[in-house]
Amino acid sequence: MMLFLLLSLFAATPLPNLFWQQEEDQIVRMRDGRLLVGAILDHDLDGFVVETARDGGRFQLTWSDLFPGEAERLRDAFGYRNQKQVPMTTAHRILLQNGREIIGRLLREDARNLEIRVRDTTSLIPKQRLAAPPEEVVVEAATILTPEQYYAERLPQVDSQDRYAQFDFAQELEVMFALEQAKQHYEICAQLAADASDDALAKRVVGALDKLQKTIANREEAKQLDKIRQLMNRERFTEAEELLAGFETQFPNSALRGDYLQLADRFEERRDAAVTRYLQRHWFHRVTKVLKMKALEKDVALDELISWVETEVPLMVRQQLLSELKEMDSHLDLTGIDVRWNKRLEKGATSYTAGFNDGTWILGEERARAGMKQTEEEKTDNRSAQQREMEERMKRYMDNLEAQRRAANAGNEDVKPEDWWLRATVTQRFQWLLAYYVEFSGDYQVTAVKFSYCPTCGGQGYIEVMDVSAAGAKQRKKKCPTCHGVQVRRSISFK
Question: CA-CA distance, 213 to 215, in Å (whole number)?
Fold first, then answer.
């Protein structure tokens, strides 16, 4: 299985910088809360020298000595960028019929089962439980590989004589918590750097080894922090939050407090992103499951069905997702669900389509054809969103009353919405419900509305029939039995 490494690598040489040469006083916030006021005299990839304005004392600081966020601010000012390595690897996503998702290495597949390994755990999954075929994905290596497994896979890919490759590999191993192996490859890198007289790299190795030795010397704290990272990677944030809350009590004078603070700083952002991803993956499936069950029912009143789609379905979906997300975020509520669901649009959401098809006429002519031609009145509409929503709800209510009135006075040629529902296939009913939910619940963003002419009348809205009697034949126009005069089929794209 091919192993990838996702790197955020930028030039190590800073941009021309007058910031420190001018020796202007700066306020530097330390990790322990202290503030240093003074001029920054020199800096490199590992840290900087500051001369305090108060007494002229000089301090050699590393980036890890600073308060979270402070190092990033100064490195940006100096023209440096963070050099971070996030080991990634290929895996398979397995979706089960109960909605559960498993991400791991697919080791073996036969006619009946899949064999999946996640770190040290191997499971057999019957194929009859699958909701979809296995999908290949790229994930953080720590989610599915132990440090030893990662080292065994990655080692053959690293050039043993390339000092920079050895340094990068050692950093990867440190992230993966393969500490002894990381130390070994830092030492190999140091020897290669010395042979090449690469003083800059040798200096970096010394700093990296000092930090690594500190981690090894405080292995229990490091293991606890690594456990928290693993829980976050597996999106088990409720457990991770409990361990984070207890870390300072368990290790009150930890030498790795800086690493703990960095992890704590990233926790909420990581959890929010994970909840958003979960909603984006599962919202559509929860909606379709509810609507497919309803589509099986034949004896329904369309006005009640429409009210159910508009008001009850959105709440049902949210409550189900909320119960599923308790393991990720025990503090989450319905408002939080909405906030994170809307965030999906910021990074690109999955697009879907749905159509009213031959049931388009049930919407009424105005709503069925809405969007075909924008009027000047619509272009200059100054109503607030609340006013438009209220007027739209009132209009739907009046349309439903009118539909009921027409149904009560129906003649031989009139067809009630319930008649169409009864004759439609389950798939047609489901598509109609999905399209209505998307357009009128507000849960999705409609990106496009498409129209096609009615295939029966060719978009005329009527058909011509011939009445034959003793007096002769007479041609007349009759409302189209498929589109009922609205002329079009309506479909939508949404995300």
Answer: 5
